[in-house]
Amino acid sequence: MTPPRELEERWKTWLADRNRRGMIMVFWIVLALYPAFGILDYQLAPRAALPLLYGTRTLVVLATLAMFTGVRTAIFERQHAIISATYTVLCASGITLMTVFLGGMTSPYYAGLILVIVGSGLLFVWPASVVLATHASIIVCFIGANSFVNHSQGVIQALSNLAFLISTAVITGTGQIVLHRLQREQISGRFALEQTKANLEAANTQLKELDRYKSQFFANITHEFKTPLAMILTPLEMLLGGDVGKYGAAEKATFESMFLSGMKLLKMIGDLLDLSKLEESRLRLKVGEQDLAPYLRYLVDQVQPLARRKDIELTYSSNAEQCLVYCDLEQMERVFINLLSNALKFTARGGHVRVSLHDLAGTAWVVVKDDGPGFPSELSERLFERFFQVDGSETRRHGGTGIGLALAKEIVELHGGHIRAESDRGARFIVELIKDKGHFRPEALDRRSQRREVVAGAREADRGIQDFAVQMQSREEFRLLDIVEATERRVIARDPDEDSRAHSCLVVEDTPDVIRLVSMALRPQFKMLSAPDGLAGLELAKRELPSLIVTDLMMPGMDGFELVRKLREDPATRHIPIIMLTARGDVEDRVAGIDSGVNAYLAKPFSPRELLSAARGLVKMQAATADILLTQRMDSLETIAGGLAHEINNPLNYVKNALVRVRIDAQALLDKKEMSAAEMQKLDKRVRDLFGVAESGLKRIAGTVELMGSYSRAGYTRELRPYDVSQAAREVIDLVLPATGRKVRVETSFEGDCSIECVPEEMNQLLTNLVQNAIEASPEETGRVDVTGRAVESGMLELRVKDNGHGIKPEDKQRIFTPFFTTKGPGRGMGMGLTIVWRVATSLGGTLAVESEPGQGTEFLVRVPVRRETQRGAA
């Protein structure tokens, strides 16, 4: 990423200044040490070399003096690294020249080169290329200059000196390269920090400006809100006073709800306006000496009737008959009423709220304590933050804007006092006020001599609106509005004629205003009921069984989804249509609501006309569904009744005919005094056959009754026992064939052991139904039914019942196992036989299949496991 141009300029400037200061320091060091080392020359150098040595030192000193002025030029500013490096090499070259005459590479003067390298590393900040070039030049000059001088002795010393020189250059050069990088990063970090600081300062300035605009906007907009509010509240007051005409109870309740909501909005506007004034220090106090003892006693007496509506015991106590305090009583009343409304709101029915006044030396304490749920102690300071609420979730039980306590704190602190909150078995709020007036800030007082402040942008024409607001705020119902709302238990006013309405509606909602809005929309056609949460709504729905339920989604305790699920699980309430209202209109929420059983889903804010239309449609649909269901049940009852009549009538005819024939034979036997042995034997056989037919018919009737009972007791306890299918099939054939009275040949064939584990009564029913269906489907005289069974290797028993009847139509094949479906028509069957067969087979873990072609007969194949591994007695 390319660094910004400003950063690059900053870095170049800093680097030039750093190397300039290094050069100046080097100049002074050279001027001090270079001549001083001439003394060493005199002691060590040959006399012939002294002129050259002193000449070199003189040259370096003169060059140094000349460069003093060069470091201030623009050329040095641009080429500071090259110039400082060249000067370093110059100083090192002078020392190298000295070594040539003083022992070459073994000369102790090589230490001067080490000093030059170390000094440059400490005083100059160079890029890597300059560092490498400078140190390499010093070493190359030292080696090259001494290569032309023959010093045959001290080779080891020379190599040692060279090794130390090179090592010093490497270490110092590495340090210089790292230092260059670190200095660059430091400058970059400092630049970024300065930029961030500048941005923060600019943002802070903008934030202050926006905050000022916000306060100004609040002041202007809240003032402007009062104009349309006055145009709403004034006509409503006239309507309630009867100045426009007389209205019924329902209309009057609607107007009262509108008027109350308008006053709540007016109060909220006043609170926001005062907050904006406090932010700009524009709220002024009308301070005077007030006696808090009688005032608080009067205020508690005013609130007593409202507290009794929640069965709350409200008490007042004081340790003094008189407590004089300098304050603005109108503003302090807002503080006390806010604390009382909070205490009454959060205290349950039957609770206690205590107000106490403590006259102390120089201060007065007003304490409001309740025995409600309290609050977490760590939130005691945050309670007074603007718009903060202990329970800020969407499902909070108690509403509110979160500005009441914040405004109370601002007012108390404007008086120079303090307010704090404690929580121990309830909430406890303490207001501490200073009794005298010397502590008030002059700018916080309302001077009558000063021009009274008005809201910015207010016009002279608005004075009437201002007067209306002041007049409204002076009313007792407005002053105690928060307490009225906190103690109100009646959400929906009762209509005198509500019992005459055909339908009822239950509204489950934790916001009383929404309940009133829904009630206003639906009360012309519904008797209205209400519940504050899901638990109460569920209990009321089970008790009242309303025609319609309107519920909110987000509620404390039990939300709307859970309420709907519980209503749908209860047979008594599962049919009630439900409309869900919510401020969350996401697709996921709508799908979840429909999945849980919601009939209609309306997002807040909703249209009352849309709500009424949806309610009407759901109630009408419910009535239409009930009519259709009743008609279907009557049709099913007709079919079932006809089938039962057929199933019972045929065996009864068998019994009746058999008994008539027995009576005739018995009468003939009595009339005829003598009868041959052959006649007696024939009569005996006929009577026995008739009794067999009668017994078979009675068993058929018993089987029909048992079949109906078994079907009605779906899920009854079952006990698995061993069962021989081959023997049972033969017994069933012996019973069913005579009862049908049809001349059909029935053949059986079973291979191997056909014993299984099952419920014998159920398998008997399966065999009976399959055999009877086959016999009745086969043609008279030529009919044939084959009942076969065999055990297969997979541990299953295959049972086949095949007839040569007319077969099953393709369109009926998929419906023959449906309860009450029959192709025989009313009076000839119940349509339950094959349903029972399917249930028995599947309950044993088996399958049931049918193969049939029109005119080719029908074959039913039942496959059931020989043994069941499931727990015995399972339903």
Structure summarized in a few sentences:
With 875 residues, this protein is of the alpha/beta class.
Task: Describe the structure in your own words.
The chain has 875 residues and is of the alpha/beta class. Helices cover 57% and strands 13% of the residues. The protein contains 24 helices and 19 strands. It has a 5-stranded mixed beta sheet. The longest helix is centred in the first third of the chain and has 86 residues, at 155-240. The radius of gyration is 54 Å and the shape is flat.
Helix percentage range? 55-70%
Which stretches are poorly predicted, pLDDT < 50 over at least 5 residues? Answer: 392-399, 449-466, 633-639, 870-875
What is the global morphology?
flat
Structural class: alpha/beta
Rg (C-alpha, Å): 54 Å
Average pLDDT value?
79
Strand-helix topology:
Elements: H1 5-36, H2 38-44, H3 50-67, H4 74-101, H5 110-123, H6 128-147, H7 155-240, H8 249-279, E1 288-291, H9 292-308, E2 313-318, E3 324-327, H10 329-346, E4 352-359, E5 363-370, H11 404-414, E6 418-423, E7 427-434, H12 463-473, H13 476-479, H14 481-487, E8 503-508, H15 512-522, E9 526-531, H16 534-544, E10 548-552, H17 560-569, E11 578-582, H18 587-596, E12 600-603, H19 608-671, H20 677-712, E13 721-724, H21 725-740, E14 744-751, E15 755-758, H22 760-777, E16 783-791, E17 796-803, H23 810-813, H24 833-843, E18 847-852, E19 858-865
Helix pairs in contact: 1-3, 1-4, 1-7, 3-4, 4-5, 4-6, 5-7, 6-7, 7-8, 8-11, 10-11, 10-14, 15-19, 16-17, 19-20, 20-21, 21-22, 22-24
